[in-house]
Amino acid sequence: MATWSNFNFQNSTSPLMEQIIFFHDHTLIILIITTILVSYLMMSLFFNKYINRFLMESQMIELIWTILPAITLIFIALPSLRLLYLLDELNNPLITLKSIGHQWYWSYEYSDFNNVEFDSYMTQFENNNNFRLLDVDNRIILPMNNQIRILITATDVIHSWTVPSLGVKVDANPGRLNQTSFFINRPGIFFGQCSEICGANHSFMPIVIESISIKNFINWINNYS
Known about the structure:
The protein has helices at residues 15-47, 59-88, 214-224, and strands at 95-102, 105-110, 117-120, 140-143, 147-154, 159-163, 168-172, 178-183, 188-194, 207-212. Strand 2 (105-110) and strand 3 (117-120) form a beta hairpin. Strands 3-2-1-5-8 form a five-stranded mixed beta sheet, with no helix packed on it. The chain has a five-stranded mixed beta sheet with strand order 4-10-9-6-7. The chain is elongated, with a radius of gyration of 24 Å. It folds into two domains: 15-46 and 58-88, no CATH class; 95-224, Cupredoxins -  blue copper proteins (Immunoglobulin-like, Sandwich), CATH 2.60.40.420. Helix content is 33%, strand content 26%. It contains three helices and ten strands, in the order H-H-E-E-E-E-E-E-E-E-E-E-H. Helix 1 (15-47) packs antiparallel against helix 2. The chain has 225 residues and is of the alpha+beta class.
């Protein structure tokens, strides 16, 4: 989860989020190099006293400053397209989770199991025993090291199911079923929130995922049923 004074990404929980962070760092390096180069050229132009009264045109420099930005954009576009296709990839999911957005709470259905469905409301903050505005009464329980498919929709207005550490952000539209998948590679508790302004209590419909081993997950399913 995010902590005070943390301006970086949260620690990744899935391979997709790792790739998103790598792409961010790659693009940021290109931006920094470009900014330094342009700043240096502008400062040189401001403070030098070189004068050439006969310079009317230079096709070579125009060719260079046209080709270089195009090459730079290619270095950004190719990893971006690769990442875009990776985010849409769906590889034999073990479990399908259905998430339904309401004003202002989430409900979940485990489609592969009978009678496993529940509503998830934000809990009241009590003496540091839970996280303020982030904890819920019923957490999503999922097994780690398995491919998870999630189907997302809404019943009233547009919501957005967002868990930053998983690299997942999918809109929940009424009358439409959106799909994505993720792979949790470590145990833990991971927090998210609705990131689409959906009304008065938009800030109060958090998402909590608890990642456990497959053995404990099977025990949880058996006890729930």
